Recover the amino acids of this structure.
């Protein structure tokens, strides 16, 4: 019980309390870089601006001190409830994401994940599907036509992309043979020979490939086994997040601010927090599923423990391995946050019909083709094809 | 512990269902009560070790179908009172009668149901177990269902197309 609480505190402290304020700062600085400006640098304490790092604190103070306004004719209960519904799903998703492997300290073993459930990815989909309600209720309860249009767009967009999101991962599930996130992450802690199929089908005889081709290896990451799945899944997650280029539900130039236009103060802040919180959560999901999770390329857990353990004892080696794995996971999450920021400030907003066309006419057929092709290859490799 | 949780989620499910049926003046609040019922039912399925059914209950019913209901409500822009007062007494009476009926039925079954948990093989109710059953013993029913869904989809597309062409 205590250990579960400690794990929970760790992941919430790192992702929510640690990364979230930095992401709001990164967002402003990234936009400044893209638009050839300096960016946020005015907030100061006694003249110290610290690169604008005080702005997140200033933003929160500002939001908390503003009036909490409910428009006339709005459904008061639902209006107050919507921001809460919006922020809960991304926090719940953190529960199943493994930020480290399983480590054995003498008798006891420590697994760095809060809830290690067998149907982990189904849980992520289920929780993610609830997120739609935040946007839908916010728009409907505001008694405002712009907000209503925004939430209609949000609900249509989010339901559509949920379909492709599920299908784009089926290939990965088939390859890894599990829906449990810890197993998918542990599966990627190995490497494969690029030309290993030559040996597998007996086209080249022997144990090793000739001419040093045996060293031509890649880590067994989802992104190398399922490149199409990676692109589709990342696109779907970004569409679910409703940030540009998929921000038609907000669409400032068409809908003023879309579904959350009637919100002020910290209730608006909650919608914003939910959007920003989804960025590291998306990063963590992609890192776990496609970038090898906590694993370090070409350096498996056994190797580290054997080599370091020979000199410094097994306990120390395991502890070091654990720290390295958590650091590796966080590096991947930070990389994915950077990638999302770069995409967000590079691409212009899709028109609404383009968003729907992309989903139903391009990505859904591609994800189905990916499922079929992966199935054929898996059967072929296992020698089950006639 | 399990019994307490069952009673908690059961109470939420019943309250949500009543909220949906009795909340005729506000369609959206009714739909949201339905979501509460679906989520509580999902939790009960999970407690019964039917993990896949439980999570699909939330994913499909709460996460997709009720959202489509809400989408239609917003598309038609139904506001409070839009459904009128006329049929409310009838609906409410039927709802109360049905609720009491189900309650009476369950009071007869419940004591036996709580007596002893059934022995289940490992992996019962998980996606592997259900998937293997679906594609072996029930493969015919599964494929026929997919045909049915395909037919419904084609029908919806044809209906939608006719409406735009006829204008």
């Amino acid at each position: 019980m205590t250990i579960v609480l400690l794990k929970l505190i760790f992941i919430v402290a790192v992702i929510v309390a640690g990364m979230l304020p930095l992401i709001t700062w990164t967002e402003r600085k990234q936009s400044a870089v893209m638009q050839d400006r300096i960016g946020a640098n005015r907030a100061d304490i006694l003249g110290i601006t610290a690169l604008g790092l005080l702005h997140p604190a200033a933003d929160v103070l500002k939001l908390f001190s503003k009036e909490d306004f409910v428009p006339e004719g709005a459904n008061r209960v639902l209006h107050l409830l919507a921001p809460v519904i919006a922020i809960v799903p991304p926090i719940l998703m953190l529960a199943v994401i493994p930020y480290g492997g399983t480590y054995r300290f003498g008798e006891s073993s420590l697994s760095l994940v809060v809830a290690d459930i067998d149907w982990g990815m189904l849980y992520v989909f289920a929780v993610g599907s609830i997120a739609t309600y935040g946007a839908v209720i916010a728009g409907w309860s505001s008694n405002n036509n712009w907000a209503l249009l925004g939430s209609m767009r949000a609900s249509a967009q989010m339901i559509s992309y949920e379909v492709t999101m599920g299908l784009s991962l089926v290939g990965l599930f088939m390859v890894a043979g599990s829906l449990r996130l810890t197993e998918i992450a542990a599966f990627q802690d190995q490497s494969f020979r690029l030309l290993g199929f030559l040996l597998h089908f007996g086209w080249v005889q022997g144990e090793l490939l000739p001419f040093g081709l045996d060293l031509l290896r890649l880590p067994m990451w989802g992104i190398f086994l399922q490149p199409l799945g990676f692109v589709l899944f990342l696109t779907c997650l970004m569409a679910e997040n409703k940030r540009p280029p998929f921000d038609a539900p907000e669409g400032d130039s068409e809908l003023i601010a879309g579904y959350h236009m009637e919100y002020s103060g910290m209730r608006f802040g909650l919608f914003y927090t939910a959007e920003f919180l989804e960025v590291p959560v998306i990063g963590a999901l992609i890192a776990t599923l496609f970038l090898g999770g906590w694993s370090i390329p070409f350096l498996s857990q056994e190797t580290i423990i054997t080599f370091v353990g020979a000199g410094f004892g097994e306990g120390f080696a395991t502890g070091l391995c654990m720290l390295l794995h958590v650091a590796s996971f966080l590096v991947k999450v930070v990389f994915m946050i950077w990638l999302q920021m770069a995409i967000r400030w590079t691409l212009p907003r899709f028109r609404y019909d383009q968003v729907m066309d992309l989903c139903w006419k391009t990505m859904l057929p591609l994800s189905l083709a990916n499922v079929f092709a992966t199935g054929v290859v898996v059967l072929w490799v296992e020698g089950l094809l006639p | 512990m399990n019994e307490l949780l069952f009673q908690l989620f059961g109470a939420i499910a019943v309250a949500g269902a009543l909220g949906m049926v009795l909340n005729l003046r506000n369609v959206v609040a009714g739909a949201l009560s339905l979501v509460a019922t679906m989520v509580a039912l999902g939790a009960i399925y999970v407690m019964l070790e039917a993990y896949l059914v439980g999570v699909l209950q939330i994913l499909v019913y709460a996460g997709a179908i009720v959202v489509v209901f809400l989408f239609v409500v917003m598309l038609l822009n139904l506001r409070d009172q839009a459904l009128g007062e006329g049929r409310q007494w009838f609906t409410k009476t039927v709802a109360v009668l049905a609720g009491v009926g189900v309650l009476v039925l369950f009071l007869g079954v419940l004591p036996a149901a709580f007596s002893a948990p059934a022995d289940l093989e490992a992996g019962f109710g998980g996606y592997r177990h259900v998937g293997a059953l679906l594609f072996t013993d029930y493969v015919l029913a599964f494929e026929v269902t997919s045909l049915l869904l395909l037919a419904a989809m084609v029908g919806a597309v044809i209906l939608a197309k006719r409406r735009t062409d006829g204008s």
The first strand of chain A starts at residue 102 and ends at 105. The CA atoms of residues 189 and 372 of chain A lie 26 Å apart.
